[in-house]
Design brief:
2 domains; about 30% helix; four-stranded antiparallel β-sheet; alpha/beta; single chain; 10 helices; binds magnesium ion; 14 strands; binds adenosine-5'-triphosphate
Length: about 325
């Protein structure tokens, strides 16, 4: 990717940003935020928190009510073109020119930013996104997952240094999700700064260096991912019992357990990031107490759950 600026500079610098929509709804409330160059920043928040609004103002699609935004040092109001050229946006909604072919759409998109044609770059891009075979297909003939990849290709067509991914994996299958993650890893190696929004804790865990949490238009927390996951990452182990229990045996009282479904199910909540998560000792005590299971599974607390707690706390 071409570098227009020194790497030490913040890729994105937002200060005291406010957005009130025309109907009077305040979607962003005094947001200040810095994203370092080369960083992967995940923006998390419940539906309607203001994630898309924040991303859209940084990309210059939505006009802020006040406050300042800089991308690679370029002021998003005074130096609009330069700031806009630095960013690529993969929107949340699938909007593509249905009758265009993949190749022409991506080429056109590059041209919009005034970049010289570079077929070799675009070919590699489509190959990286497993779209090369489909380059001559009309977009309307592609599957939903492929359409999403076309949006990514378009967003990357002008070699932006900052890429915004608004819910890149909402509603896509596991395979595509994994391949998105791989792509993000590749872009990071090339030094691209990435801001993504997601509802999947697994996704933030997999990809982000830093996490910001937004609620009711306010960024209520920004934190290093590892630290945040230690604080918030919870998992549940659900054990379906062969015969119901009236109550939990005394010896098992030390663990965070609860009995559900008329005593037919034990649910153990633990911190997923901890190595000593207590699962081993739970299994030991089940054996000691002669409790037998017919089935078990684990589930992760969703970010939505975590937000609810966190947002309530604030
Ligand atoms: N053009 C608009 N006019 C008025 N209100 C709007 C407009 N666009 C968004 N909003 C409101 O602003 C709030 C934030 O919306 P936004 O799309 O930024 O949320 P989000 O965090 O991206 O949510 P989701 O997780 O559902 O994508 C919502 O209450 C929404 O209804
Ligand atoms: Mg959104």
């Amino acid at each position: 990717m071409s570098k227009q600026t020194q790497p030490a500079q913040a890729a994105i610098s937002v200060s005291n940003l406010n957005k009130t929509y025309e109907n009077g709804f305040k979607a962003l409330d005094d947001v200040s935020l810095e994203v370092k160059s080369g960083e992967i920043f995940a923006l998390l928040g419940p539906n309607g928190a203001g994630k898309t609004t924040l991303i859209s103002t940084i990309c210059g699609i939505v006009r802020p009510s006040n406050g300042s935004i800089k991308v690679n040092g370029f002021d998003n109001a005074k130096d609009y073109r330069k700031a806009r050229q630095c960013v690529g946006l993969v929107p949340q909604e699938l909007t593509t020119d249905a009758f265009e072919t993949v190749w022409r759409a991506v080429n056109f998109s590059r041209g919009l930013f005034g970049k010289k044609p570079n077929d070799a770059y675009l070919e590699q891009l489509l190959k990286d996104l497993s779209l090369w075979d489909k380059r001559d297909s009309q977009i309307r003939r592609l599957s939903g997952g492929m359409k999403r990849r076309v949006l990514i290709a378009k967003a990357l067509s002008h070699e932006p240094e900052v890429l915004f991914l608004d819910e890149p994996t909402a509603g896509v299958d596991v395979e595509l999700r994994k391949s998105m993650w791989a792509l993000v890893g590749k872009l990071r190696e090339r030094g691209v700064t990435i801001v993504l929004t997601t509802h999947y804790i697994e996704e933030a865990e997999e990809m982000a260096d830093r996490i910001g949490i937004i609620s009711h238009g306010k960024v209520i927390l920004t934190e290093d991912k590892t630290k945040l996951m230690k604080k918030l990452g919870k998992k549940e182990l659900v054990l379906e019992l062969q015969s119901p229990l009236k109550k939990l045996p005394k010896g098992m009282g030390k663990l965070d357990l609860r009995l559900e479904d008329d005593g037919n199910r034990i649910v153990y909540t633990y911190e997923s990031a901890k190595e000593e998560n207590g699962v081993a000792s739970l299994l030991d005590s089940l054996r000691d107490e002669g409790i037998r299971c017919k089935d078990f599974n684990t589930r992760e607390s969703s970010l939505e759950d975590i937000f609810v707690t966190l947002v309530k706390e604030k």
